Amino acid sequence: MEVESLNNEKAPGFFARGWRCLKAKVVDITMNAKKLVKDDPRRVIHSLKVGLALTLVSIIYYYQPLYKSFEVSGIWAVMTVVVVFEFSVGATLGKGINRGVATLLAGALAIGAHHLADLTGQGEPILLGFFVFLQAAISTFMRFFPKIKARYDYGLLIFILTFSFVSVSGFRVDEIIELAHKRVLTILIGGAMCVIISIVVFPVWAGEELHNLIALNMEKLGNFLEGFGDEYFQVPGESKEKKTFLEGYKAVLNSKTSEESLANFAVWEPAHGRFKFRHPWKQYLKIGSLIRECAYRIESLNGCLIADMQGSSEIKSKIREACTSVSKDCGKALKELALAIRTMSQRSSTDSHIKNAKFGAKRLTTLLKSGIWEHIDLLQVIPPVTVASILIDVVNCIEKIAELENELASIANFKQVKPTVSPEKKQEVGSSQSKIHCSHVIITVNDDESSSASSANPNLSGPRNKEDK
Amino acid sequence: MEVESLNNEKAPGFFARGWRCLKAKVVDITMNAKKLVKDDPRRVIHSLKVGLALTLVSIIYYYQPLYKSFEVSGIWAVMTVVVVFEFSVGATLGKGINRGVATLLAGALAIGAHHLADLTGQGEPILLGFFVFLQAAISTFMRFFPKIKARYDYGLLIFILTFSFVSVSGFRVDEIIELAHKRVLTILIGGAMCVIISIVVFPVWAGEELHNLIALNMEKLGNFLEGFGDEYFQVPGESKEKKTFLEGYKAVLNSKTSEESLANFAVWEPAHGRFKFRHPWKQYLKIGSLIRECAYRIESLNGCLIADMQGSSEIKSKIREACTSVSKDCGKALKELALAIRTMSQRSSTDSHIKNAKFGAKRLTTLLKSGIWEHIDLLQVIPPVTVASILIDVVNCIEKIAELENELASIANFKQVKPTVSPEKKQEVGSSQSKIHCSHVIITVNDDESSSASSANPNLSGPRNKEDK
């Protein structure tokens, strides 16, 4: 009786489970699709654009007069659209130009090779085979050159394809010139269709993407730094919620590949919006790599944040205010830099944030010198002091980012925007600085044991606070 | 007179400069090519393999009996070879299978769509156009799903291509079934040619590449850690040469993309060499991401190494021995782990290195507790102490790597190798440990000022030295 009921339960259970599993899968896919659309609605637009381009070029096939002039070659237009249409204008243009130029070059070379082989008579297949082998091997090897791979990889692929195609089929098809001519023409039609649609219908510019990505990465680091101080120095027991803004920086650690490919696409793009042709995209890569260096430091800060060993709360409370203000100023400076990039305008307020951060770093250095740590277990001192020293390093890093951003601004002619800080606010900043400066006068520490250390003293804050020089 | 002589100098100068420039360019390219070959001689072999495969499939065109059965469709074999042949077996297989399956599926669907459109009579082009639009839009959108993009991106591209191709050309060519049949057959021939040549002639297995890359990355970090101690604590004035081994870790920071693509290729590969089908490639990605985390810490260590502010040489000399030994043990442990992966065998000597490193970290913690830093300017204390605390963190990280490596070893059935350490050596390690342990007894620091700090004391070395638990 029991066995039977178990079996009975099993049979419908199996189907029910299968059904539930399928339903869960469908729900899962729908959720994923919704997230993809929500993250970037242009994905849907891109899909529709590809469909549109493909439908338009297939008219060559459907429309009698056009079909008469191209015949079966019309299919190359369809193929070109499928393989050339990419998400961004730059990628589409790059692939289109690569495909066009490579087809022309390889076609011409293949016709030459074909004529040369023709002269030998009997040995034609052997010579043609040798040519195909040689160009395939050489072109394939050339694809390993990093610079060529970045810009002309697709072109070399098409070169191999077209050369083999034309020279091999030339052995049979007598109207080789006509074949090449038709193919080039249909490829041009397909390529032009892709380029026109990708530029005209809601264009996605790789350059603008790179521009925004760099600004976004800065903002992510800025968010972390703005929130870090409060998070790290909070009284234990305070709520530890809404930490998502502290995780944003992780995406920056691995953004090198996407930045580089966007920069490679961007060079193909014509002037668009606020970007001229030959906008200094390489400068973005330099800034991006500095941002990543800054992100590595933030990874260390995050390590301090989540470490079990948090160190002396006494020391923490002593450096809390200075660290929090440095961290906030760094965050604000990064966000201002990001805003400057986004709006393509130089703001003097950025400089003031960096100055504040540098000032704060100096103040922190003074604080660390002032002997607040005496008679406390060094192990308890290390964690907060590590945080302080990483923050001082971050200030340094952000200063470098600002320098590179200044270079970018001068190359790309960013607008100059007058300070938006009101006079009262300015004064407030000034007075708070001097107030703090006064409250922490340099206290000389008893140097009895550290003769070698004190001899190194003059170099102390030198490299970290260029203001001194 | 002067002007003339200037012009005279200019004219030959211009050509001479042009010639020199060209010569420099050629020399530059040759050097680059030589470097590419030296770095990985398989690049030349790959190029020759592509040439060979292409020449072999073009025989379909040259050889009369074969040409009779395939006619112009033979060109699809050539195209397949050009686009499918990749550097590794996995990538080639993945592309080949994607292309084959997508062609079959899309071909069948397109024939169905064609028949359906046929029934409508007059509206055929419109309905076909609609189908092409719909499938292109849906397939393009599907390419945005990260999982699909990683494995089936090429398949979806070919799906769009074949569906458009067959359904569009079906409008004209009546022998649509025969066309599809020939195309599938030639694609199979081309694909099979690629797969066979890539497996038979000096195969490059993506799985093995991933396996070696992970081991290599470990070795790079190991090299850094082994050399770090001597480099950081060297007496100023000692030669600062041959630092190349200290730069190797930088490549690890950005290896995520290549690891992931290798893992994606590896799943397509059959059993090869020491790797079974369904070898746990995902485990390598987990290890790889931990290795990167360790690399971020090493980036911080490198920052300490090149910093202008080196801190108190007194403190440095006090912790020199302990830090150097932890760093060396970490390096050895990583290199042992790398060796274990390379040889696919578990060594008990690895555990002993990790134990040593953990022991060293504990010793370092004790040292830091022992008040060696008293009466020294904190700013002078920070740099060496930061190094020490990062090293303690690195030990923690390497322990986690070892855990994941153990998991990998048990899933992939690594061989067990008996310890290779000779008894004398073992004793030596033991005695040096106890000697050091004795020389640095825990000195209680005067806690008068840090009541809150001392209350946190029990947790001190807990999280960093799991041995305690």
Automatic annotation (TrEMBL), chains A, B:
Membrane topology: Multi-pass membrane protein
Region described as Disordered: spans on this chain: 446-469
GO biological process, one term: monoatomic ion transmembrane transport
GO cellular component, as recorded: membrane
Listed Pfam families: ALMT
Keywords: Ion channel, Ion transport, Membrane, Transmembrane, Transmembrane helix, Transport
Location of this chain's protein in the cell: Membrane
Entry annotated with the keyword Transmembrane helix: yes
Family: Belongs to the aromatic acid exporter (TC 2.A.85) family.
Protein name: Aluminum-activated malate transporter
Lineage: Eukaryota, Viridiplantae, Streptophyta, Embryophyta, Tracheophyta
